[in-house]
Design brief:
The complex is a heterodimer of chains A (633) and B (262).
Chain A: H1 7-11, E1 40-46, H2 50-53, H3 57-67, E2 72-78, H4 82-91, E3 109-113, H5 120-130, E4 145-149, E5 165-166, H6 172-185, H7 190-200, E6 209-213, E7 219-224, E8 233-234, E9 262-265, E10 267-268, H8 278-282, E11 287-288, H9 291-305, E12 309-313, H10 323-333, E13 340-342, H11 351-359, E14 367-373, H12 377-383, H13 389-401, E15 406-413, H14 420-441, E16 447-454, H15 471-485, E17 491-495, H16 499-508, H17 515-523, H18 537-546, H19 551-555, E18 570-571, H20 576-587, H21 605-609
Parallel strand pairs in A: 1-2, 1-3, 3-4, 4-5, 8-18, 9-12, 12-13, 14-15, 15-16, 16-17
Antiparallel strand pairs in A: 6-7, 10-11
Chain B: E1 17-25, H1 34-47, E2 64-66, E3 75-85, H2 91-101, E4 106-113, E5 125-133, H3 137-149, E6 154-159, E7 162-167, H4 168-171, E8 172-177, E9 196-204, H5 212-223, E10 232-239, E11 247-248, E12 260-261
Parallel strand pairs in B: 3-10
Antiparallel strand pairs in B: 1-3, 1-4, 2-3, 5-9, 5-10, 6-7, 8-9, 11-12
The chains are: A alpha/beta (633), B alpha+beta (262).
Amino acid sequence: MPVESVFPRLEALLPQVRKPVQYVGGELNAQVKDWDSAAVHWALMYPDAYEVGLPNQGLMILYEVLNEQPDVLAERTYSIWPDLEALMREHGVPQFTVDGHRPVAAFDVLGVSFATELGYTNFLVALDLAGIPRRAADRTDEHPIVVAGGHAAFNPEPIAEFIDAAVLGDGEQAVLAITDLVRAHKAEGRAAVLNAIAASGVAYVPSRYEVEYLPDGRIRRVVPVTPDVPHRVAKHTVMDLDEWPYPKQPLVPLAESVHERMSVEIFRGCTRGCRFCQAGMITRPVRERSITGIGEMVERGLQATGYEEVGLLSLSSADHSEIAEVAKGLADRYEGSQTSLSLPSTRVDAFNIDLANELARGGRRSGLTFAPEGGSQRLRQVINKMVSEEDLIRTVSTAYANGWSQVKLYFMVGLPTETDEDVLQIARMAKEVVRTGREVSGRRDIRCTVSIGGFVPKPHTPFQWAAQLSAEDTDRRLRLLKDAIGRDKSIGFRYHDGKPGVVEGLLSRGDRRVGAVIEEVVRHGGRFDGWSEHFSYDRWMAAAEAVGVDVDWYTTRERDVTEVLPWDHLDSGLDKEWLWDDWQDALAETEVDDCRWNPCYDCGVCPTMGTDIQVGPTGKSLLPLSVAATAPV
Amino acid sequence: MARSAPDLTGRPTEIAQRLRIRYAKRGRLRFTSHRDIARAFERALRRAAVPMAYSSGFTAHPRVSWVGAAPTGVASEAEYLEIALAEVRDPEQVRKSLDTALPPGLDVLDCVPAEGASLAERIDAGAWQIRLDGVGQAEAERVVAAFLAAPTAPIEKLTKGGKRTVDVRAAVASMAVEDLENTDKNVSSGGADHVCAILTLVVQQTTPAVRPDDVMAAFRMVAGLEPPVPPEVTRLGQGRLAEDGSIFDPLAPVQESARPVG
């Protein structure tokens, strides 16, 4: 059955909307396959604006992995801004893919990547625009199988009724396994496909599990509805990143996007053990890409894209066992070619200044970013961010002495056990940083920017039991801090108020009953909740009240050891007892060392998932590229 | 983290050659903005390994200069830029490799060595085509006649400097309705009852510039035209306006012997 492009109908609407280029596709390295040549059709969605979604590495990787299969077609779709959405509703144009402009409803599978829970409203809007029933139970064989992925999929319970399945962990192999099941069973209808997915354990199929509640509202248990599905669904872990050098042909948009650079993931996972960090907990163990694998990806990607900046991505990039060799090797290779390097996530230690100097060889030294996260030593012990104030001061001294004039410091407010005094330490630290900077550099134009995020407790972390700080208390502490910083012109202060964090908290640790709130918010026009100009706290609170959901119960309530958590049947590999012990260690201000360099502390991931830490050094180095590699005109 | 400036001295690269390029912006790529196109060209120049000359400073940029880009949403057969190279290259080879490196719809049509007067000096007018779907031939002729008969057609437009009034009529050197019945152009893709009119016009450069949407605003004002769907506009040519109303090709080596375009 031919599937027609909606572009002719869309085209007439585009002159009337902002930034129409984001809807036309045609990116470099995009592909449009023949519909009828494919046995399985995937629509991949990033539920945010194109400029945010396009550079997303996860979606780009899956797009390429799927399209490499001869009988699989994958196209991309992003959230539509309200201006075009209104016109599409008026003219009956459905949610479309930007590659072939095909209607999303025509695909076999709709895969949605949730980097954050704030994409849930956009997801529902996209289902509506696509003409796909919101509730999985209302879908028929004519509708796509809707699969959620991304970090938020580690607790998909708030959207359990809106998705057909959720993949936990790395997607590369999981999408291929799902493709095989769809190909084998699609002729039998969606129930057969979902039965096969559920029974295989490749993904969590919420409709095959029932949640029972206690009279007080807590969960009694979550049980499989049918005997052939696993009691717990496990995450996927890709081992040997060198075998998965994706994206090989990164997409380069015509439109401006949030990351104007080519990214190469240099390792996956992190075992630093920061207790607030969901990413670090659910992506274990650490798996490094080799120095030579990184070199090949950088070279191939630069040739395929023409980007002038390469970002070396990971959760803590300076932790790669051969990062110094990688940075030096790449800087040598591309010296004089107008190609720059960046390390988006780095930690506070003196070694990183050498690294930063290497990356900025002779160039501009504008700003360095560090994330102490907690203002006081005590609080940093609680969150297991093992950085002492002496480390930080020594590091920034080196930075200022080396010509850097601006340091940005990230902190969180609302961390467990936090007091006003802990937060006020942030101001003291910032002043100390500026004072030290002036002393070592002899300059007055030294600046330090303090950037504050509100802490949101996340599933599968030691803080999953913690009480979240209310929006009012968060705002009160932010005011105290602001007053403490005072009128000091050398210290910048950036923060968000506590309200969005409350909604994020509700969605992060919510259960199936929270789904009604999301629906109610969408009904009242909620979408693009990650954008402050669209986010409405009042709309969320009114919706929660309308459907009878107590937001405080989900956010500011501390859970005890016996409580069944909504995501307990989803297996990140972390042993719940270890998480609890680590939570108790946090309260006792006891730190835990990184298992890469210290004995295993039995978090449970490796034995449960059959995985191992994969780190170097390999002892290899990056050789200079031959002159022939960049053929002149 | 900071970017590295590869030229440690911060000195500009020596310029060995300047090339002038005409490219077209076609089909769905007409929705790209000028900023998008500038970025796409910079990346395409890198993919095509064109040996660009760079500006000085810590954020060195390849030397590319643009002249009056067509607005977002407007197609064009005649967009121009000039690039500076650090090494001499065969212009036709540069054209081919750049065209290959750019997405289909951004098509590099000509590439010639820069000589004589600057591009900006060689352009003072543009030829446009406005396709009006849902507007019949007779209606279009009425609108054009009313517009040409009007002594002035002042419209208000928002510019960076605030609200400005511009006389659209004064900027239009010529305007005509194409006779679709006596041409074999395929315009009736929308079925038997589909009507469509195509206007061609030559607009002189003014400050502020008169753009196609200003012309549409003037049509609304002088003749009450409210087309049912947004018009499809294409820039056909740019150059110096000749006495006979045609436009000289700005890439022609000598201005006087230039072949007319548009």
